[in-house]
Design brief:
The complex is a heterodimer of chains A (201) and B (246). Chain A is α/β, with parallel strands linked by helices and 201 residues long. Chain A is built from six helices and six strands, in the order βαβαββαβαβαα. In chain A, strand 1, helix 1 and strand 2 form a beta-alpha-beta unit. The longest helix of chain A is centred in the N-terminal third of the chain and has 18 residues. The chains are: A alpha/beta (201), B alpha+beta (246).
Chain lengths: 201, 246
């Protein structure tokens, strides 16, 4: 399981008027998600441990270098109903490949879109049970981080940095962690690595 | 009192009187100069942002513009505005995008930053539109998947509803391709706009009211990015992208 706390370094991500920085909060969320996943028996690798900012490709490469990995990128939004959580999967991309059936690395997500959708719907359904007002199924978006990831990959975005008190976000972390770990565990039996693999950036 | 002292006092008195008369004039002139400078800046900005000139002979049509629904859930709603839209697809696109950028009456429903400006718009023969926006579109759009998607979605759906010839959309920032809009949404590809082909043109309207029809909440659906790279032949494309893309 590759866990990606988004942003970091000189990129703070979304910033709230109360001084809340996305890049800091996602690290705390990641720590709780990691513990929940490990308690389910998953091996977890993080794309960053501290205030670094690896490139999109470097983050994807961590998942692309493994067989059978699952990738999850964590975000805190600038907008949205406070106290809700959304899962995004990459928009449907046209399937393209050369005569050898290879997919170019910058479209590495293409063969995994079906699996990503399945994982996304599972996790979103569990989040919707815990956080009222959240959608019941995963949404699609052209998320840059997901495009180059050769694994089932989802983005989880929590609303939002505009809460007056950071504690309002911190209170969501255990529920988010539990929904993700439960969703990934439910997804595991159906995860068969597609034969056509994306390259490694 | 010595004579020279009288002279000095007299000169000082004259200077004080002249100063008292001239000072308000000087102040007025400074204010006028500052106002002129401000007007020049505003004029320059208006020239950049104003809608492209329209032919008054063009019929007023009901243009559909997509702004935020106000539910806070990332959905858009369509508003109908009567505009004398050009029949030329490039001019028409500029008109609707400038109206979209100008924003709705309720500023909270904006999807694009108020300082963002459409710098250029091109339409390639294959239906790919290239919209070049000023930097505030990237720097002032709130960072986040939902907020960035709303911004792109509002542009794509407004074009889709009003300019049937636009089939795909490429967004540039100040003439350059950028990796993401504000850290999340991928701008390296093109977005499908009219995936199903040309749509019927907006219905001509009787000239009267401006913003009209009650907004209809729309389900969030991202404009799907289409690959702008030539697709190798072997694998079939689910939604084929034109090989002579951007």
């Amino acid at each position: 399981m590759v866990l990606d706390p988004a942003h970091g370094g000189t990129d703070p991500g979304a910033r709230g008027t109360g001084g809340i920085r996305e890049s800091e909060i996602v690290l705390d969320f990641a720590a709780q998600v990691r513990r929940a996943l490990e308690s389910q028996g998953f091996q977890v690798v993080q794309t960053r441990q501290g205030n670094e900012d690896p490139s999109f490709d470097d983050r994807s490469a961590l998942a692309n270098a493994q067989s059978g990995a699952v990738f999850l990128t964590l975000h805190i939004a600038s907008t949205g109903l406070p106290g809700t959580a959304r899962v995004y999967v990459n928009s449907d991309l046209p399937v393209s490949g050369d005569v050898a059936g290879l997919i170019s690395w910058d479209r590495a997500q293409t063969p995994f879109q079906g699996l990503s959708r399945k994982l996304g719907d599972l996790v979103q359904g569990l989040l919707a049970q815990r956080f009222k007002g959240s959608p019941s199924t995963a949404q699609t978006a052209a998320v840059r981080q997901l495009r180059t990831t050769a694994a089932p990959a989802i983005a989880v975005e929590i609303s939002s940095v505009v809460v007056e008190n950071r504690a309002d976000l911190d209170r969501m972390a255990p529920g988010v962690a539990d929904a993700i770990a439960t969703g990934v565990a439910a997804f595991r039996p159906s995860y068969v690595v597609p034969t056509t693999r994306g390259g490694t950036p | 009192m010595a004579r020279w002292i009288r002279w000095v006092v007299g000169i000082l008195c004259v200077l004080v009187i002249v100063g008292a008369i001239y000072f308000p004039i000087l102040r007025r002139r400074l204010r006028a100069a500052a106002k002129l400078q401000q007007q020049t800046a505003e004029q320059a900005r208006r020239e950049l942002t104003q809608a492209v000139p329209v032919n008054p002979g063009e019929p007023r049509v009901k243009a559909k513009l997509f702004w935020a629904s106000g539910n806070g859930d990332g959905t858009l709603m369509d508003s109908t505005v009567e505009l004398p839209l050009s029949s030329d697809p490039v001019l028409r696109s500029k008109q609707v995008l400038n109206t979209l950028l100008a924003g709705p009456v309720d500023a909270d429903l904006r999807t694009l930053p108020p300082d963002a400006v459409l710098l250029a718009f091109y339409l390639l023969p294959n239906g790919t539109a290239i919209a070049d926006f000023s930097e505030p579109l990237a720097t002032a759009t709130p960072s986040g998947i939902q907020s960035e998607q709303m911004a792109v979605d509002s542009i794509a759906r407004t074009l889709e509803a009003n300019v049937p010839k636009v089939q795909r959309l490429k967004i540039l920032i100040h003439g350059q391709e950028v990796e993401t809009l504000a850290g999340h949404l991928d701008l390296t590809g093109t977005f499908l706009v009219n995936a199903e082909g040309p749509l019927p043109a907006p219905v001509a309207a009787t000239p009267a009211a401006a913003p009209a029809t009650p907004p209809v909440a729309e389900k969030p659906s991202a404009p799907a990015p289409a690959t702008d790279k030539p697709a190798p032949a072997a694998a079939p494309a689910t939604r084929p992208a034109s090989p002579d893309g951007v």
